[in-house]
Design goal:
Alpha-Beta Plaits; Multidrug efflux transporter AcrB transmembrane fold; alpha+beta; 62% helix
Length: 757
């Protein structure tokens, strides 16, 4: 078959690895070992709070930090009485509570109890020295007071305790998902291959790629600080592409060996076909992930870096150590066999299931395309109404005690919820304090807290002052964001208009302002991200297949799968449709970063499948088959592999949907639905219908080979113990195991003894 310049890279790498298998295997093991050693010897630099500052709220935080006015971290203890007024009954308990908490290391002060409006609750504020205070002693002190006063309910919540509970729950969730995903992946691979060694190779390559990447991230983090969630992203993407690439390569190599190829020739053909597809799809995945850098966000920079590295490592392993393992193992790849599954896999003709589905599509492409487009559009339309918002208490697991307490505090003490902050620098201290106090009074009705006033604090040198203003709504609420906009455009400029000085500067920050700034920036850059990701992947497809038409088709189909994922996310998590059936919670919005990750991961994974399918179709087109027949056979032959790969991905993503964090549920549902639709409706219906309708226009003609007679029976001869085809009508592609019903007159069969060879 014709060799393309890009194909030469995997061919040379595969042939060298196949002829020097132990060098390649040992080299891979050394790479993994050195990478793991890096993680143990090089410290990891994590992202800091300053790395996440955005817009005017970020500028306000920087001004507050520079002036030494940063609010100390705090915890809150909620004391409630089952019935009646809590004030008198709780006084002794509050005194004991204050004494115990003051003795805890890291506690700076315990404030006076604040009564709730209904008189049934008291809130005891606890000021801490830093965010590094351990939550255990604080919770132990509160629990001891609770034990001594069973007539009251005494609970604690705050950034420290909620953060510790969430970290513990996330770690437990991820461990559970990882432990369940490995057996599920292995089981699906055994069902696919019917042999344990063949089933274990994809999982082994994916796992070692993930391990190597985690080690490499340690030194890389000193250039791009690591977000704690990056390791989950590495596992997610690494397992996905590692299994996909191994499946593509291993399936083709086994087909070639079954067709009578020698071990080296089978590896070479797999490298030229599937290896080329791996390189192209790897480049497309990297291009999609690189789009995250457009957001200029510390979290997405870290996630993109980790994901790109794990894809590159997986591609390297697929074109080096995998051919070496296949060469070293030879026929032992198909050992030990699982008897029933092995016989079932051998008896089912290659592509039989795919041909059953594809027959009506190829015969009636217009009808198939119209029906599939209508179904995809119906699922994608709700994406137009998608509402995104920052994570809030509503997205946290409600079964965590600190989260339940925080909900109760927010209901009993609205002023302790979301806040906004106005910081002023460069004005005279007395004028600054007076102006900010006036602003607090004027802003109270706008912020939904009538009669509320903020406390003004001035820096030691008098150069800056800040006022904290409570907001009655959650930071992601539209009313809170409208209030912040009114503060910035009207109230603050009016309140500070009379201040003298050339260097007077101000900024509005706080929780609500941070939510607004982040949403505005991401909303403004999301179209740019989408455009860059689709443009880069389209260019990759055009370069790989030398066809502008295929590049456009790929882009349209990527948009279709992403649109379906967004539509289902909106239906389930915004409108609550099917949440009970799926066992998830609907907060009434989609967390703002979920669509970004779903977009890039789906585009990357769908490009894997797309490249693999089109590469097989191109082989047949270049061999001289009519486009309709090439589309039918090419997609049918690859349907089994793609179905197996998609089944692994859907299973893993579905496990994420069972976790307790709503954000993980959103990510799991969006990716599982997107991959499922992409591997079925789009790959088995929309793609073949479009290719049949486009016909010759989708394929370049300058590299088309002279047609060969694919119908002629193949004759075989023995060459140094290897059976090789010698008939004039023989092709250098893989031979079907049985007569192909898609091609009338095809009578080729595998010769007796070819499998043993």
């Amino acid at each position: 078959m014709s060799r393309h310049p890009v194909s030469a890279v995997p061919i040379r790498a595969a042939r060298w690895s196949a002829t020097h298998p132990w060098w390649a295997i040992c080299g891979w093991l050394v790479l993994v070992a050195v990478s793991v050693a890096l993680a143990a010897t090089v410290s990891t630099r994590d992202t800091q709070e300053a790395d996440h500052r955005v817009g005017e709220s970020g500028r306000a935080d920087a001004m507050v930090e520079q002036a030494g006015l940063a609010s100390p971290p705090s915890e809150n203890v909620l004391v409630t009485a089952p019935e009646g007024d809590v004030g008198t009954a709780a006084a002794p308990a509050v005194r004991v509570l204050a004494e115990r908490l003051r003795s805890v290391e890291g506690v700076v002060a315990v404030g006076d109890p604040l009564p709730a409006a209904d008189g049934r609750s008291l809130l005891v504020p606890v000021e801490l020295v830093s965010r590094d205070v351990e939550p255990g002693p604080l919770l132990a002190a509160t629990a001891a007071v609770q034990a001594g006063h069973p007539d009251l309910t005494i609970r604690q919540a705050g950034d420290i305790t909620i953060g510790a509970a969430i970290d513990e729950r996330v770690a437990a969730d991820l461990r559970s998902a990882e432990l369940r995903s490995l057996p599920v992946t292995l089981l699906l691979m055994v069902l696919t291959f019917g042999a344990l060694v063949a089933a274990g190779l994809p999982v082994l390559l994916a796992a070692t790629s993930v391990a190597a990447t985690i080690g490499i991230m340690a030194p890389i983090s000193h250039v791009v600080p690591a977000e704690p969630t990056v390791y989950s992203m590495i596992v997610l993407i690494g397992m996905a592409v590692g299994v996909d690439y191994s499946l593509f390569y291993l399936t083709r190599e086994r087909q070639e060996r079954a067709a009578g190829r020698t071990r080296l020739d089978a590896v070479t053909i797999a490298a030229e076909t599937s290896g080329h597809a791996v390189l192209v799809s790897g480049g497309a995945v990297v291009s999609a992930l690189a789009g995250l850098f457009v957001l200029t966000d510390a979290t997405f920079d870290s996630l993109a870096t980790g994901a790109i590295i794990v894809v590159a490592v997986a591609v390297l392993g697929s074109v080096t150590v995998l051919p070496a393992l296949l060469s070293a193992l030879g026929r032992w790849v198909d050992r030990p066999r699982v008897p029933l599954l092995w016989r079932l896999a051998r008896r089912v003709p290659t592509g039989s299931v795919g041909r059953t589905v594809l027959g009506p599509v190829v015969r009636h492409p217009v009808a198939a395309l119209v029906v599939s487009m209508a179904a995809v559009a119906a699922l994608a339309v709700p994406a137009v109404t998608m509402r995104t918002q920052q994570p809030s208490l509503e997205t946290l697991p409600p079964d965590l005690a600190p989260v339940r307490t925080a909900h109760d505090i927010a209901r009993a003490f609205p002023s302790e919820g979301s806040t906004t902050r106005v910081v002023l620098a460069g004005a005279r201290p007395d004028e600054a304090s007076a102006a900010l106090r006036g602003l607090a009074a004027d802003a109270a009705p706008v912020l939904g807290v009538p009669g509320g006033n903020g406390t003004v604090r001035t820096s030691e040198d008098g150069s800056a002052a800040v006022v904290e203003l409570p907001i009655a709504w959650d930071g992601g609420d539209d009313r809170a964001q409208d209030a912040v906009r009114e503060l910035r455009t009207e109230l603050v400029p009016a309140a500070l208009a009379g201040l003298e000085g050339e260097d007077v500067t101000w900024a509005v920050g706080g929780d609500a302002a941070e939510d607004l700034d982040y949403s505005d920036r991401q909303g403004g850059r999301m179209p740019l991200l989408l455009g860059i990701v689709l443009a880069l992947t389209m260019l990759m497809m055009m370069a790989a297949f030398r066809s502008a038409v295929l590049g456009v088709v790929s882009t349209v189909l990527n948009l279709a799968s992403v649109g379906v994922a967004f539509g289902v996310l909106s239906l389930v998590f915004q409108h609550g449709l099917g949440q009970d059936l799926l066992g998830v919670r609907s907060p009434g919005f989609v967390v703002v970063w979920i669509p970004v990750l779903v977009l890039v991961v789906l585009v990357g994974l769908s490009m894997d499948y797309h490249v693999f399918v089109l590469s097989r179709v191109r082989e047949l087109v270049e061999a001289g088959q009519p486009v309709r027949a090439a589309v039918h056979r090419g997609i049918a032959d690859t349907a089994g592999v793609i179905t197996s790969a998609a089944a692994v991905m859907v299973s893993v993503f579905a496990l994420f949907a069972t976790l307790s964090m709503t954000e993980m549920q959103m990510l799991g549902v969006g990716l599982a639905v997107g991959v499922l639709v992409d591997a079925t409706v789009i790959r088995l219906v929309m793609l073949p219908a479009l290719l049949v309708l486009l016909g010759e226009r989708a394929w370049p003609t300058r590299r088309r080979r002279r047609p060969v007679a694919v119908e002629a029976p193949t004759q075989w001869r023995s060459d140094a113990g290897t059976l090789v085809p010698v008939a004039a009508g023989a092709t250098d592609g893989p031979l079907p195991d049985r007569a192909d019903p898609a091609y009338p007159g095809t009578t080729r069969r595998r010769p007796r003894g070819a499998e043993r060879t």
